Batch of 2 targets.
Target 1
Amino acid sequence: MTTITQERMPAAQHRTRFEAPTLQLLPDAVAENVRRMRAGGPVMAVVKADGYGHGALAVASAALDAGAEWLGVTDIAEGSRLRDAGITAPILAWLHPSGIDAALAATARIDVAVGSVDELAELIDDARMPVRVHLQLDTGMARGGCPVQDLPALLRLARRGRDAGRIDVVGVMGHLPQADLADPRANLPWVMRMQHARDTALRAGFAPLVTHLGATAAALHDPASRFDLVRIGAGLVGIDPAGRSALVGRSALAQAGRFTAPVVHGSEVAARTPIGYAGAYVTDRRTHLSVIGVGYADGIPRELSPTASVEIAGRRHRIVGRVSMDQIVVDTGDTAYARGSIATIFGPGGAAPSVQEWADWAGTIPHTIVTGIGARVVRSVA
Ligand SMILES: *Cc1c(COP(=O)(O)O)cnc(C)c1O
């Protein structure tokens, strides 16, 4: 099946009077996180969803420079774009939302995870050149992956595909359901199932095999679940999926993004001034307001607790009134900021809010904050 896709509008070349809303990747932070998680063994840097919002190519490059051995993506097309950009490291794609493009997988040298007998049969039918395959097992999520009772049938078919020169089986993988727990006991049944699958595949004549199960939480908190490789995504950009609870007694990962936007409008208003749509907030005193040109279309959650804040000039200022599509208003008290003053939405260090704080303010997880950052926010690299 071929599809005609919409042409994206070309990026406008225009001079900005002040710095546009920008998510800047901090490659040194990615490198620090990779080195920390790689201390226990080889890692696959997962850069799906445009590198958790931070820019897939930039995050991938920083991770590879720091020693990551593999890259992981959701879709073969994402992997092939990394190839086009010159990346030579092994790349695995595991979900194939539009099915496996066997020709692209073979020519772009993208390994594919295959999680059912049907999917493997289709791939073997389609493949004209050998495609490298990781057999994916359901390890307790019922969200993709071959059920354990179908493993013998999957292996029989894989052998036929291999003997016909259509596939090379190079790995077996699973995915842990308790990806947000720093508790090895919760992983134990799935670690045992993975061992069983690996041993069964080895006995069926597939060797060598790279076996992989865990993601960031496992890399940080459960060395026994590592096998040959861990696939780290959230951790690359500084998110520990086990959250604050896991940080007790250990140092947090390094936050790898700084999201900034300029003040575009300022005013001084009297007490009892309603702000924004529906006047959902009313000032309780004479105060200064700064309007910042990012809103929910840029990934600022609309459902925020009243303590949500941004940092300007080293101080935190609360967001007041509803988040609009393209803008937010902050109450800056006695201080009037000039147009073009830079607000930090999130970033490492100082008074800047963290991604975890944004998740707490919005009642969500840090992953949805970073992957929700809109397309018009400029991505840059420090
Ligand atoms: C997203 C994903 C990962 C990475 O998970 P993190 O918790 O973000 O490190 C690993 N494996 C698979 C199959 C995934 O879908």
Target 2
Amino acid sequence: MTTETTAVHRIYNFSAGPCTLPLEVMQQAQADLVDFGSASGGKGLGMGVMEMSHRSKPVVAVHEAALASLREILELPDNYQVLFLGGGATFQFGMIPSSLAANGQRVDYTHSGAWAKKAIADAKAVGADVNLVYDGTDNSYTTLPDPATVQSTEGSRYLHLTTNETIGGVQWKAMPSCDAPIVADMSSDFLSKPFDVSPFGLIYAGAQKNIGPAGVCVVIIRDDVLEQCNGEQINYMNYANHVKGGSMLNTPPVFQIYMVGLVLEWLKGKGGLAWASEMAEKRSGLLYDAIAEAGGGGYYSCPVDAAYRSTMNVVFRLPSEELEAKFIAEAAAQGMDGLKGHRSVGGCRASIYNAMPLEGAQALADFMREFAQKNG
Ligand SMILES: *Cc1c(COP(=O)(O)O)cnc(C)c1O
């Protein structure tokens, strides 16, 4: 990978997704885009990674390396299969229940916010018997249940949860131990910390938050869950067909998978999930401290219960919407972009995924203190 970073113009990008990617990865991709394999200097294959057949040797090698890296980073046991699918995490909202529960079978869902809501709607749409074991409507999705109190119901095919609500900024800190396998939407905190995969029957994550560009979704499925899938799906929606095809049932999103492979290599080089977790704690700690202390305290507020605050998406408010608009504009002028909260909730949000340098979080924390002082 090229290490020349000095002359490149980069800002701190706090966008929720697509979001910032490691500079080294972007620079390697820049070279490979035109001449695959030329990043280290010299000649490559004379064609770009986007131009090659997905069945060609180099692309198959890229594909397999990305799958192997993911297995290595997660220390994934052999009874889990890894797939790179199209359609984003959103497609999984429907593919999962239609594979496991379309014939009116019972499934348990936790309703923790905007993303859970979409998953629930699609499970209902395909005809599953959806039971809510937790519903955060009353607290406006600002907290989560104690995992020890969450249990699946009799006969449930799975219990679904959203490990990190990207819009609301709430994050599960531990998993429930329930009888049914857990199915988790990990889109916005996948690979941000080590975790035990054994409670999970299925994990899915759209790449564009922590591990690459939009357009590919990682699906990890346990063999016993795979066997329970009904086979009445159209070809593409049948997990078993993807597994049989080595995650190359059809033309996969080659470029996205190539990028995911580079990000995974980068993550391994940094120190894997232990490093990611340490950095996530540091970055989010800087921002939550600034929220608590800036301007003598109380200038910023975070609506989320302190026990479940996200290490990936830090949401906060200022004393007025006018000040929020001013804050977002002035931050952008200083090279800190993407701080506007989701349009459904307003306020501010700093998304600080794996590729956000610690300096970015520090710069934002400093700016928050300065802004509070000047505009208090
Ligand atoms: C972004 C996001 C999604 C949607 O991902 P797409 O790839 O756009 O379908 C789903 N769930 C969560 C938690 C997300 O953050």
